[in-house]
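sry for the spam today, last one i promise. C-alpha cells for design, 217 residues
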C-alpha cells in the first residue's frame, strides 16, 4: 500500500533529493539502522494519516495512533534485516522494501492486526490481505508494502526520488517489483515508473486497491 506522495510541483527539483539506503550490501551499525527504522516509521505514520485503505482499517484516530506504528515497526524490522529501508530528504520520505524470498512473520502480524482492527471489521480486513496475497508475482520479487512522504514535504519530488533509487536496485538484480496502490493519484505515479495494474481489489466498503507489478528489466 502507498501513503500519500503527491507529484512534484512545477519547478521543483527532485534530483536534489538524498537517498539513504539500509540493505544487505551497505549496513550501518545496528543502532543507526534501528534509528533509521524509527524515523521511517514516524514519517509513514503521518504520510498514511489520510490513506483511504489504512484509515478504513483504522478509522478511529486514537486506535490509528496507538496501533499503526506497531504494524509499521514490524514491517520495518523485516525490511531492515533482509530488505531495504530507503529515506529521502533526511527522512521526509521513506520506503520499506521486503526482499525476494522473505516473508513477514505471519503469526505476529496476524496477532497485531487482531489487536489493531475493531472486531466488527476483522473478517473483512483478513479477506483484504488474502486478496492482496493472490496477486504477488510467482517469481522472486521485491515487495514495497509502504512508501510515503510527510505531508509537510510533499510536492518536492521525494516520492519519485525514492522510487528511482529503489527500482534501480531491482534493475541491477534484474528482478520485478510489486506494490499495491491505494489511490488513483498514486497509481498514476507508479505507472510513470513502469508499474502496471494487474487487478482491482474491492472488499466490503473499503476503497479499491490496485496490485501493481513492474517487470524485471
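last one done:
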Amino acid at each position: 500500500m502507498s501513503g500519500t506522495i503527491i507529484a512534484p510541483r512545477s519547478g521543483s527539483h527532485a534530483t536534489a533529493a538524498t537517498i539513504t539506503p539500509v540493505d544487505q550490501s551497505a549496513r550501518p551499525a545496528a543502532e543507526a539502522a534501528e534509528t533509521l527504522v524509527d524515523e521511517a516509521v514516524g514519517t509513514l505514520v503521518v504520510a498514511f494519516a489520510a490513506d483511504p485503505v489504512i484509515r478504513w482499517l483504522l478509522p478511529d484516530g486514537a486506535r490509528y495512533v496507538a496501533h499503526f506504528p506497531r504494524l509499521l515497526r514490524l514491517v520495518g524490522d523485516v525490511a531492515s534485516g533482509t530488505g531495504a529501508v530507503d529515506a529521502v530528504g533526511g527522512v521526509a520520505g521513506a520506503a520499506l522494501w521486503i526482499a525476494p524470498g522473505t516473508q513477514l512473520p505471519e503469526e505476529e502480524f496476524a496477532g497485531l492486526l487482531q489487536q489493531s482492527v475493531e472486531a466488527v471489521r476483522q473478517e473483512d480486513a483478513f479477506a483484504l490481505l488474502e486478496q492482496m496475497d493472490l496477486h504477488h508475482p510467482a517469481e522472486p520479487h521485491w515487495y514495497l508494502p509502504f512508501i510515503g512522504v510527510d505531508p509537510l514535504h510533499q510536492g518536492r519530488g521525494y516520492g519519485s526520488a525514492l522510487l528511482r533509487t529503489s527500482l534501480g536496485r531491482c534493475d541491477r538484480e534484474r528482478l520485478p517489483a510489486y506494490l499495491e496502490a491505494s489511490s488513483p493519484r498514486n497509481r498514476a505515479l507508479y505507472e510513470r515508473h513502469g508499474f502496471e495494474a494487474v487487478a482491482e481489489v474491492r472488499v466490503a466498503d473499503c476503497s479499491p486497491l490496485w496490485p501493481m507489478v513492474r517487470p524485471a528489466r
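The first helix runs from residue 30 to 47. ok im logging off now
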